[in-house]
Amino acid sequence: MKENLPKTLITGADGMVGSYVDFGIKTDPRSLDVADMNETMSVVKKHAPEVIIHLAAETDVDRCERDPNHAYFINSVGTYNVVLAAKEVGAKLVYVSTSGIFDGQKSGPYTEDDMPNPKNYYGHSKFLGEVIVRSLLKDHIIARACWMFGGGPKKDEKFVAKIIAQLRNKEIKALNDVCGSPTFGKDLVGGIKKLLLDGAVGTFNLSNEGVCSRYDIAKAITEVLNPSVKVVAVDRRYFDLDAERVSNESMVSKVKIMRPWKEALVEYLKTEWENKI
After folding, report:
1. What angle, rounded to 10 degrees, do the helices at 185-197 and 261-272 form?
2. b or e along 246-272 (b: 16 or more beta carbons within 10 Å of the residue's beta carbon)?
3. Which of 64, 122, 138, 234 has CB 3.0 to 4.6 Å from 238, enough for a Cys bridge?
4. Which sequence spans correspond to the domains of the chain?
5. How far is residue 196 CA from its own chain's centroid?
6. What is the DSSP string of the chain?
7. Contact 228/85 with Cβ under 8 angstroms?
8. CB hemisphere CA count around 165 (13 angstroms)
9. What's the topology of domain 2-151+181-210+250-258?
10. 110 CB-near residues (< 8 Å, 6+ apart)
11. Where is average pLDDT lowest: 134-138, 153-157, 209-213, 219-223?
């Protein structure tokens, strides 16, 4: 598949999702600091890509809440710089966004057409990135993910890795009053590839299929890696977190290219974690 892709440059390729990118020109914060306008323009002009996949972002929700300026600088200003560089060389832009742009009040999964209304600084900064992309660049893909997992022991610092780190405990506590649609980084990259090859333009929800709670994910992890661990359901009051967690981040997509979340999670655990803990 990758042989047919246009010349592509990837920002933030050293992260969780970037670990599954097997094509293109990979950059990281050392070779391309997206918050630096001059450097971004220089690097993009040097490589003259036909497509830019913009993965570079601050995804630590609680850090964004503690330091909003940092969140906006990386997620909003950084995206603005990449958009201007893409415009300069005539490149299509793929911007990875988040279900965190929604307010969690909807009773069912969010569609691409639902109105964003973010409730924390992370969501605000990523939504502003979406607005910038749509406003300045006609040829774009906004690919929304939710509850990302992937990267294995070296790259995964998110919920799945945090649960795996507790598998030697007798019990693990996980939220049962929030729901989402988990996204395997490998599948997200595959979905982006397909959209690029199809010449797609616009906004797409690219989480894995289905809806679950954090408790459901923790249960699935213990079933594969250590069934003797008890998973205890708790609500949001149990954890003292800086950023507000909304009750619903689940999504449904207008394109049917993502497999069910549990199937993706089981593959991830068995191929990247089994025998390594």
Report:
1. 120
2. bbbbbbbbeeebbeebbebbeebbeeb
3. 234
4. 2-151+181-210+250-258
5. 18
6. -GGGSPPEEEESTTSTTGGG--SSEE--TTT--TT-HHHHHHHHHHH--SEEEE------HHHHHH-HHHHHIIIIIHHHHHHHHHHHHT-EEEEEEEGGGS-S--SS-B-TTSPP---SHHHHHHHHHHHHHHHH-SSEEEEEE-SEE-SHHHH--SHHHHHHTTTTSSEEEEESS-EE--EEHHHHHHHHHHHHHTT--EEEE-SPBS-EEHHHHHHHHHHHH-TTSEEEEE-GGGS--SSPPPSB--B--SS----BHHHHHHHHHHHHTTT--
7. no
8. 10
9. Rossmann fold (3.40.50)
10. 99, 102, 205, 248, 249, 250, 251, 252
11. 153-157
Alpha-carbon Rg for the chain in angstroms: 18
Of 207, 209, 233, 208, which Cα lies nearest the Cα of 219? 233
User: What is the average pLDDT value for the chain, to the nearest integer?
Assistant: 95
Spatial neighbors of 264 by CB under 8 A, at least 6 apart, are 182, 184, 186, 187, 208
Q: Are strands 212-213 and 179-180 parallel, antiparallel or unpaired?
A: antiparallel
Lookup: tokens for 60: 């630590």
Cβ atoms 9, 47 nearer than 8 A = yes
Contact predicate 92/141, CB 8 Å: yes
The answer to whether the beta carbons of residues 195 and 181 sit under 8 Å apart is: no
Q: What mean pLDDT is predicted for residues 199-205?
A: 98
Give pLDDT, residue 242.
67
